[in-house]
């Protein structure tokens, strides 16, 4: 019975970009006001992720006119149109509740540089994208035809370099 439930839940999961606590994200979500629907953007720092599968949630915190605002979103909610990762944060905690007491510059999170690879990213690169990783794989990687064109361009450059004599 448990396997059937897990299969049904896995079918409901949406592709979302990979992000972690400390990252600055923009969440585009649908708001219903009366009979109108509109997309609202909430940008802030992810202070926690909890749960797994279809029940996974994440909390985003931002400062709005000097007041701290936190909002918790279900990760796979149909109301979330898009999640953009604006910046990667470098933190050493899974829950960043300590940011609640900090104001201004003290509430900043160091930014992770492009050259810094985490152990999780290295493991994911080694293993490839499996069925479990498909739901959390980066969406920003581009489409398959674009990647194929880029790979063909690199291969063409390599073969052109081999054809030229070493002296010229």
- Give me the strand/helix succession: HEEEEEHH
> What's the mean pLDDT score?
76
In terms of quaternary structure, what is this? single chain
CATH architecture of the domain at 9-105: Roll
What portion of the residues fall into strands of 2 or more residues? 25-35%
- CA gyration radius, whole angstroms: 21 Å
Topology, number of strands: 5
What is the CATH topology descriptor of the domain at 9-105? SH3 type barrels
The CATH class of the domain at 9-105 turns out to be Mainly Beta
Quickly give the structural class: alpha+beta
Please report the number of helical segments: 3
Helix proportion = 10-25%
Keywords, please?
168 residues; alpha+beta; SH3 type barrels; five-stranded antiparallel sheet; 3 helices; 24% helix; globular; Ribosomal_bL19; Large ribosomal subunit protein bL19; structural constituent of ribosome; Ribosomal_bL19_sf
């Amino acid at each position: 019975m448990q396997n059937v439930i897990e299969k049904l839940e896995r079918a409901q999961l949406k592709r979302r970009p990979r992000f972690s606590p400390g990252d600055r994200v923009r969440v585009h979500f649908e708001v219903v006001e009366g009979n109108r629907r509109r997309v609202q953007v909430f940008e802030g720092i992810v202070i926690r992720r909890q749960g797994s599968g279809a029940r996974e949630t994440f909390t985003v915190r931002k400062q709005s006119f000097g007041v701290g605002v936190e909002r918790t979103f279900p990760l796979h909610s149909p109301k979330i149109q898009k999640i953009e990762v604006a910046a990667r944060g470098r933190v050493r905690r899974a829950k960043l509740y300590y940011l609640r007491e900090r104001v201004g510059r003290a509430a900043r999170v160091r930014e992770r540089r492009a050259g810094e690879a985490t152990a999780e990213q290295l493991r994911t690169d080694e293993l490839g994208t499996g069925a479990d990783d498909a739901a959390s794989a980066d969406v920003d990687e581009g489409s398959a035809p674009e990647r194929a064109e880029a790979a063909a361009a690199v291969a063409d450059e390599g073969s052109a370099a081999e054809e030229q004599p070493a002296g010229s």
